Amino acid sequence: MLFRFRMPMESRQTRKTIYHFSALVTERRICGEYETPKRPQPHTSYDRAQQSMHFMIYVHAKMMIVDDECIITGSANINQRSIDGAKDTEIAMGAYQPYRLSTKEPVRGQIHGLRMALWYEHLRKLDKSFLEPESLEFVRKVKHSVEEYWDLYACESLDNKLLSHLLSYPIGVSSDGEVKELAGLENLRTPKVEFLNPNLD
């Protein structure tokens, strides 16, 4: 997932205007549930994923909420090719609430309510800063939460129960713009993947 935040130029520093997230899930073992009789080879990525019940979430659906006023959602990519209906076999819908746009008060309709509900689902918390997602305070709080959840996910213990499924994408950016993988990747229980393509400059 990619979120872009617009900020005053004087506030822009590394990783403040663009932030990448990962979506993962931790499932809980249920007493008496079915278990496959054949176990994976020990100490493999598959074995570690089975033990920890940690799995990546692959999201095909797309959704964009603009200023709590308009929403586009569906399977189509949000671009001309996918949405104009002449090429890709995808579907999308757009909606807005016109009676919510005619006042100077902040928009607080159903689209706003959906955005707030989604943040709660992703982070398992709400904060007054979520009312102003363009603010630096909001970005800092979300950044703190997703990095905290990443640290829990990437630590050596397999017993961590994640409350949130929104984590920081495991890359770091130095003050001079160099992109690196975060520490802790060696402990991942999911199949090993390269988060940075070594063939790209």
TrEMBL record:
<dbReference type="Pfam" id="PF12357">
    <property type="entry name" value="PLD_C"/>
</dbReference>
<dbReference type="InterPro" id="IPR024632">
    <property type="entry name" value="PLipase_D_C"/>
</dbReference>
<dbReference type="InterPro" id="IPR025202">
    <property type="entry name" value="PLD-like_dom"/>
</dbReference>
<keyword id="KW-0443">Lipid metabolism</keyword>
<keyword id="KW-0378">Hydrolase</keyword>
<dbReference type="GO" id="GO:0046872">
    <property type="term" value="F:metal ion binding"/>
</dbReference>
<dbReference type="GO" id="GO:0004630">
    <property type="term" value="F:phospholipase D activity"/>
</dbReference>
<dbReference type="InterPro" id="IPR001736">
    <property type="entry name" value="PLipase_D/transphosphatidylase"/>
</dbReference>
<dbReference type="InterPro" id="IPR015679">
    <property type="entry name" value="PLipase_D_fam"/>
</dbReference>
<keyword id="KW-0106">Calcium</keyword>
<dbReference type="GO" id="GO:0005886">
    <property type="term" value="C:plasma membrane"/>
</dbReference>
<keyword id="KW-0677">Repeat</keyword>
<keyword id="KW-0442">Lipid degradation</keyword>
<keyword id="KW-0479">Metal-binding</keyword>
<protein>
    <recommendedName>
        <fullName>phospholipase D</fullName>
        <ecNumber>3.1.4.4</ecNumber>
    </recommendedName>
</protein>
<dbReference type="GO" id="GO:0009395">
    <property type="term" value="P:phospholipid catabolic process"/>
</dbReference>
<dbReference type="Pfam" id="PF13091">
    <property type="entry name" value="PLDc_2"/>
</dbReference>
<feature type="domain" description="PLD phosphodiesterase">
    <location>
        <begin position="55"/>
        <end position="82"/>
    </location>
</feature>
